[in-house]
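Example: glutathione transferase.
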Amino acid sequence: FEERRYTTIAASDFDKSEWALEKANNKLNLAFPNLPYLVDGSVKLSQSHAIMRYLGRKFNLIGTTEIELAHCELVEQQIADLRTAFMKLCYSPSFERLQEGTCSKADCLGVLNGGFIDRFAHMLQEISAFLGERKWFLNEKLTYVDFLAYELLFQMYVWNSSVFKNVTNLTDFITRFEALPQISAYMKTDSYIKWPFNNIMASYGSRNQVCPF
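Written out as structure tokens, the predicted fold is:
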């Protein structure tokens, strides 16, 4: 596959004109021009979860029965909820005070006040309980939701490993995913991006910060 990356210029307004111009012209004829997008022959998609579901079907990384499909979609949306909460923290200008729980609602520009450590720990416990002793989120079958889960869980573990102290099956999941032969091989290539996690305007996980590993 060919990867296309767009640059956000580190200026006061974080210039995104490279993508904005292409989005306005929409030469790719995307139904809903947005990032990320996927062009696979005649298939042209945007929206992350639509892309992941499509790839799941194409490469047999999805459930086959109605209950399996429902479980995939359930985990997908639960991971999405956790990602949304984590991104609110990562992109908040009050990042340090928010994660410490010392920021008022007024000071934090509408972002939920404090308690992020406890909140994330609770959400992770729910995901941990669902995974249980299973190898993957759909028992023995690797699916696209395992990719979604791994990416977020890894980023959160790097941010603060203490929230994983009571959910060791999730840290085992991270290790198990990274040990998959194709994943392990990919992580050794120049194409693998371990850092940054987020765009340049993020308060945490941007290329403006020192890589923590």
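The domain at 1-46 is CATH 3.40.30.10 (Glutaredoxin).
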